[in-house]
Amino acid sequence: MIIDILRIILPIVFCIGLGMFLKRKNVFDEKGITGIKSFVLDWLMPINLGFATASAELSSDVIAMPFLGFLMSAMSLLIGMLLRRSTRQKNRYMEILCTTYENGLLGLGLFPLLYPKLSLAYDVALDVGLAFFFFLIWVPFMHGELAGGGSLLSKLKNVFASRILRGVFIGLILNLIGISRPVLSNQWGSILKDIVAMPLSVITPLILVVVGYEISFSRRYVKEVALTALFRMIATGASCIICILLLKLVGVTDRAATYTLILASILPAPFASSVFAGDPDNTEFINMQVSTYLAVTLIGLALMVAFLR
Question: Between residues 275 and 19, which one has the greater pLDDT?
Answer without folding.
Answer: 19
